[in-house]
Amino acid sequence: MAHTKFGVNMSKLCRDTASDAVWHLSSQFVDAVVQSLVNMYVWITLLAGLALLLALLKTFSTYFFQDCVYMYRALGFGIRLNVYKRKTPFYSIVDCFLEAVKKHPRKAFIHFEGKTYSYEEVDKESNKVANALRSEAGLREGDSVALFLGNEPRFVWTWLGLAKLGCPAALLNFNIRSKSLLHCFSCCGAKVLIAAAELRDAVEEILPTLKEKGITVYLLSDERTTDGIQCIGQAIAKASDTPLSPSLRSNIHIRTTALYIYTSGTTGLPKAAYVTHERVWASSFIQGVCGVTSEDIFYINLPLYHSAGFLIGLVGSIERGNTVVLRRKFSASQFWDDCRKYNITVMQYIGETLRYLCNMPKVKAHMVYKYGDICLYNLFLRVTVSQICLEALWDSATTKTQTRRLSDVFVKGDLYFNSGDLLRIDKDKFVYFHDRVGDTFRWKGENVATTEVADILTMVDCIEEANVYGVKVEGHEGRIGMAAVKLKEGRGFDCINTCSVLANYLPVYARPRFIRIQNSLEVTGTFKMKKVKLVEEGFDPTLIRDPLYFLDLTQKKYIPLSQEIHKSILSQEIKL
What we know:
Elements (H helix, E strand, L loop, with lengths): L1 H59 L3 H23 L6 H11 L4 E5 L2 E4 H18 L8 E4 L4 H12 L4 E3 L6 H9 L5 E5 L3 H13 L3 E5 L8 E3 L1 H6 L18 E6 L9 E5 H13 L7 E4 L6 H14 L2 E4 L5 H10 L4 E3 L2 H8 L11 E3 L17 H6 L9 E3 L7 E3 L3 E5 L5 E6 L3 E4 L2 E4 H8 L5 E9 L8 E8 L7 H11 L8 E4 L14 H6 L10 E5 L4 E4 L2 H8 L6
Parallel strand pairs: 1-11, 3-4, 3-5, 4-8, 5-6, 6-7, 10-11, 10-12, 12-13, 21-22
Antiparallel strand pairs: 1-2, 8-9, 14-15, 16-17, 18-19, 20-21, 22-23, 23-24
Helix pairs in contact: 2-9, 4-5, 6-7, 9-10
């Protein structure tokens, strides 16, 4: 009985246990299915939300993903810059160039007017320059040297030679003359001037003053025809191309001045802004941030004395280790031919460049896929008037631009920089340059100070007063220079002497192409020249009764502005 009872109980226990197990398993299965459905619903909801978010971003922020890629690259280069700040010994762009020479010595570095120079060839040429200047001029680390050269390979290896010696270079605008040239040279503290042979006349004009100040002048030429100018061409050719010891620049650090680059002179004479090695590195990264690689071929037709052409173009290409195509100056008619000839993939531009290219006939296929330009970005959509940080103040201490600084703009103690540029923003938040404001105008990609031009005009014997302004010309970017002048009593307008004086003191882009003769110049109650009406009236001889003159560069004089000449200018038969 006990056995039977025990057996019955065990059987029941087994049945109950099996039933519980099945129920437990079923419950787990149901729970798992429910949980899976919940998870699936969550994922579907998340994916739907993400898809909706992406769609909204695509609709309302078209360039969001490109911005993310851009900022990711920018963050990477920002980290690199911080590494370079702390690296000892200091790692400069010259060291970066020397690494590129070791990595690919035979790679083309510069294409120029049918000739190609490899990284190794440029390195050796720069060694020759450095060795010659050490022995001939006694240059040592920290000595500033002014470079007065056009866009050519010698500019590149002369600068590199100076950099290998630890000498900061002042990059002079090769268009400036006389008073402006002397001013630019003087304010960088240089004791040596190196000039191209074709700029001899401009150097000779200021030579007496340079000699008085004990300035040594070298011409990159083999001929010596002027007392006080030494030709260093042969010395460089005969110099050794052996590498220079890094110890020659051992005291260089991230805050050391590397360059002097000049403003356009929009508030008077050009001013020297000194560029530290930190700023050189930061500018060189712009190519990388924009996606340029070592396989790209970079087109430089902007002047090397400007930040865009030199820092972003040339130095940026050294940082990337790519190839550059260098031109003496921009040519719309030859631009795309160059692009096809050299398989150019990246071009650098300012606003005027694209206008000129768009006015050219339709071109054949080319390899250009990227357009490099300075970019403005505002991550947090805050109102800015370009706030100045203490670091920027330190870097720009020699610019002496106190008149451009605005304090207490939004809060007590803030400090902003007034660039003088009028911008406009489209629906996609792209920022476009529109015009210069104040006593400046922009022509041929250069900013011109009206006050400086007016001062030069009053140096002409026949002119008593001058009011300078910029006027629009149909089919052209920016504004061209024009001046309303009052002649001295009893004097007529001297068409030839006026042209001659302007040519001696001003670059071509700053010379007024139109002159308007007035009996008196209108001024405000505070004796400031009135310009608005003059700007609106422009240079149309059918609307203006005052005598008008046009600067004919071929005849080197001002000629009366007839209706026929006016029509030819508007139809672009006469090139400005």
